[in-house]
From TrEMBL:
The gene is Taf1a. It comes from Piaya cayana. The lineage of its organism: Eukaryota, Metazoa, Chordata, Craniata, Vertebrata. It comes from the Eukaryota. GO terms for cellular component: RNA polymerase I transcription regulator complex. InterPro entries: SL1/TIF-IB_Component (IPR052669), TAF1A (IPR039495). Pfam families: TAF1_subA. One of its GO terms (biological process) is transcription by RNA polymerase I. This is TAF1A polymerase.
Length: 411
């Protein structure tokens, strides 16, 4: 009856809520009991939902078995095999997650076997409809072949190439290479984020001296507009170019896009250094913009290298009395929030106690931009002079000498 269906729907929803509550509180035994009730109740359920009952049981059951104190690998495998038979449409997804679980438990050979069985799976038109899942299955097989190749490579490199045993190792290594290369190359043709697959494929290519192919793969991954914006793609390309001694122009080009995507990336220090050394005015200007942008992020607040880069550039500009407008342009958008963010009296005391070098670099920047009356500069320079540290006396004289710069920068 209609009333029965309504009551059943409410009971089912309530049971799911109990399971969710138990899982959130990490009460895995309690969650398992409720899931058992839920599974039994579903035998009476003839409704059709977007996410079918078997998928709910699969996902919740997997999570519970992964954390349940009495769970064993044998029970987990048994549960997964049942889940494979319950839903043909998600068969490959279940196989893939099963392989992940086996890998997390160090069962690499078993995971490879599971992927091989999934790859050969056939079920009418379902096999063709799940082309993406099949590609993923093959890609992870390729990843495990790469792992085996890497192990054989390390054995060969460690023991050299002496005797028949090493020849068999080398042959086995080449066999793994061929299998890994085919599957890894295939998956990265499809637009997506394939970081680990790209890295492994490039490693294979570089080892066998196919640098041109590796460059094409990385360039395609970084610059193809069909692929989603991915900072790592530009990191991998930059690292490859750097390994192969490419020109500064190529390195700067790779890092420029990375800067646009992630201005707080750790490679921005390298980017700033290259730009700062450039003879081109436009690149030196960009270098100042880059280092200011880095220090906008809390993760860089106490990074001595970043503050040293900024201090060095600000000092050079002040001494040359050229391009003070660069500093002014960067400061205008930060003058309301950088003083409390970087240059408070509290931070001056903290930085002085914890890191003298950091306090020195920050004092130089704050003294030039905010003037000699800045609380941060006054405290640090006073403590430095009091401790009779020579560079703090020189710092104080430098800021006092160039105090008019503060007025020009602050407007």
């Amino acid at each position: 009856s209609h009333e029965h269906k309504l009551n059943f729907g409410k009971s089912k929803e309530m049971c799911l809520n109990f399971i969710q509550d138990a899982m959130l509180q990490k009460q895995w035994k309690r969650a398992a009991e409720f899931l058992t009730f839920y599974a039994e109740a579903l035998e009476k359920d003839f409704s059709r939902e977007y996410m079918g009952p078997s998928e709910i049981i699969w996902r919740i059951g997997t999570e519970i078995l992964c954390h349940h104190s009495d769970s064993s690998m044998k029970e987990f495998n048994s549960f997964i095999e049942q889940m494979k038979t319950l839903g043909v449409k998600r068969y490959l997804k279940v196989c893939l997650e099963h392989s992940f679980h086996l890998l997390c438990n160090g069962l690499i050979h078993e995971a490879y076997q599971s992927l091989s069985l999934a790859e050969s799976w056939r079920f009418g038109e379902q096999r063709a409809l799940q082309d993406k899942e099949i590609k993923l299955i093959q890609a992870y097989k390729g990843l495990l072949d790469y792992y085996s190749w890497s192990k054989q490579k390390n054995i060969l490199l460690e023991h050299g190439q002496d005797g028949l045993e090493d020849l068999s190792v080398e042959q086995e290594m080449h066999s793994y290479f061929r299998k890994a290369a085919v599957n890894l190359k295939e998956i990265i043709k499809t637009p997506g984020v394939w970081d680990i697959f790209v890295k492994c494929y490039v490693d294979l290519l570089e080892f066998y001296g196919d640098d041109e192919e590796a460059r094409q793969v990385l360039s395609e991954y970084a610059y193809n507009s069909k692929f989603p914006a991915n900072p790592n793609a530009h990191v991998y390309l930059y690292q490859f170019l750097k390994r192969h001694g490419e020109s500064k122009k190529s390195l700067i080009s790779a890092l420029k896009i990375l800067h646009d995507l992630v201005p707080s990336h750790e490679l921005m220090i390298d980017f700033n250094t290259m730009l700062h050394k450039s003879k081109k005015r436009k690149k030196r200007r960009l270098g100042l913009e880059v280092i200011f942008a880095v220090l906008d992020y809390v993760g860089w607040k106490e990074n001595v290298k970043a503050w040293s880069c900024l201090a060095r550039q600000v000092k050079q500009i002040v001494i040359s009395e050229k391009h003070l407008d660069w500093i002014k342009q960067e400061w205008n958008s930060r003058k309301d929030w950088w003083p409390p963010f970087h240059f408070s009296l509290y931070l001056a005391k903290k930085n002085w106690q914890e890191n003298e070098s950091l306090s020195y670099e920050k004092a130089l920047v704050s003294g030039i931009i905010l003037g000699k009356d800045c609380k941060y500069f006054r405290y640090v320079s006073h403590q430095g002079c009091k401790a009779k540290v020579k560079r703090f006396r020189i710092l104080k004289k430098f800021v006092n000498k160039h105090s008019p710069v503060h007025l020009r920068v602050s407007g």
